[in-house]
Structure formats: C-alpha cells, structure tokens
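Team,

Forwarding the record for the chain on the shared tracking sheet. I've put the sequence and predicted structure together so nobody has to dig through attachments.
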Amino acid sequence: MRILISISALAGLLFINACSVNKAKINDQLKKYFDAKNVDGCFTMFNNKDGSVMVYNMKMDTMRFTPASSFKIVNSLIALETGIAPNDSLVIPWDGIKRNRAEWNKNMNMREAFKTSNVPYYQEIARRIGADTMKRWIDSLGYGNQNISGQIDSFWLNNSLKISPDEQLGLMKRLYFDQLPFRKSTMETVRNMMIQEENTLYKLSYKTGWGFDEQKNNIGWVVGYIEENRHVYFFVTLIKSPEPTIDMAKVRMDITKDILKELGFFLGKM
C-alpha cells in the first residue's frame, strides 16, 4: 500500500488551495440566483485559460463547512490508492437495512455508489481504510482542517472534518492535473466517476454533497469542473439554508447550472 510520500512531495501539497482569493474578481451579480431560491451561499470559479478567479460571496468562500458527500472524492482516491478497492468495480453487499433512498438498498459497486452518493457504501470503505491510514492521507493532502476525530465512518458528516469552497476548488484543480499524491491511474478513475454530462459541446464533471452544520442549517455542495472548447474551468457552489423542507438536490443544481449558463457555458464557445 502506498501510504507514505516523500518529504518534498508533502511540502508541495500541504496547502491544497490553488487560488489566491486576494486576486479574485468579485461578481455580486450572481446573488440573484441564491436570492431566487431563498438561500445563502457562494460560487467560485477558476479559469485555467487565463488564471483568473471569480467569486461571489468571498466571506463564505473562505469559511469551512462539513464536506458531506463531496468527501467521496477523497474517500475513493484513498481506497483505490491503498488497494482497499482494487478498482471501481468493487462490490459491497447491501447490509439488508432498508433506507429512504431506495436505490441504496442493493449490492453496489463503487461507480454506482459514487453516482448515487451511497453513504453506507462509503462508510464501509472508510472502516476498511481505517483511522490511521485515513489520517495519513488527509494530512498529506492538507484537506481542510484535517480533523477526522470521532467515528471513522462519520467524521465527514458530523462537522469534525471541514473544508472551504476555496480549498475545494484547489482540490479539483490538482485532481484534474494529476497533482495529488496518488497514481495517475487512481486519479483518472475518480475523474471518470465524476463525469455527469458529456456531449459534443461540453463535458461536465462534479460531485455533490448535502449535510448539516452545528446549527442544523442545510449545507449543500456542487464541486467540479466543466470542459469546453479545449479549456477547463473549475467551480464550487456552496449553499446554506435553515429551511428543513428544502429540496437541496434540486436547488444546488439549479443554481449551479443557472450561473454556468449566465457565464456563457453549455454552448461550446467558452
């Protein structure tokens, strides 16, 4: 298992965020999309073509929140790199407990579990990785506050581990360009699992997340990138709402796609 990395590699990876918020262009015009859904939030994008950063709501962009299921990106990378999962076809049998998400109630491989954001599957993955190995990798990545205290199968859900949108953006950039301390094949596998839409105009890749902070606010994520006209743009949407009946799955994607449309994406011209 590849757990240890060189000191030089570690030094280059201690700080995961790739973008300087001090140089970011503030775009307050995006506020209307969050207001339309009665939620608070932020959006940040890194344009790899010219190195520019655009942010709506800088304050939230640099605050840390529970990663919720967006942590499945890193959970998958560690499982694949250490051999806990030989590949993305690893099947974990259903434990027989019926859950509200009916699609989780069956045997499932990693690709399916990633797409359906299957929490029990990835909780079992974390248990198999173990606390010591998980901690080494979280530290080597410099992931958020690097706190995995509590149960090994819930630290990314219970507000122990936290990460900012800016740090998530840096993670996406490093994953895309094979700059994380994993084998290229490992990163390629996870990138392939992240692909959600692909056609002749664009390719959209992301992972979502939905959790709760200490005040029981809904925390929603869309973390990924869009490739268009041979250029890549990394983005993160974060949503915060106290509304207990919010349809977060819909709201987070509506806001993300509305913003991407406003910025000119989906037409193959960016």
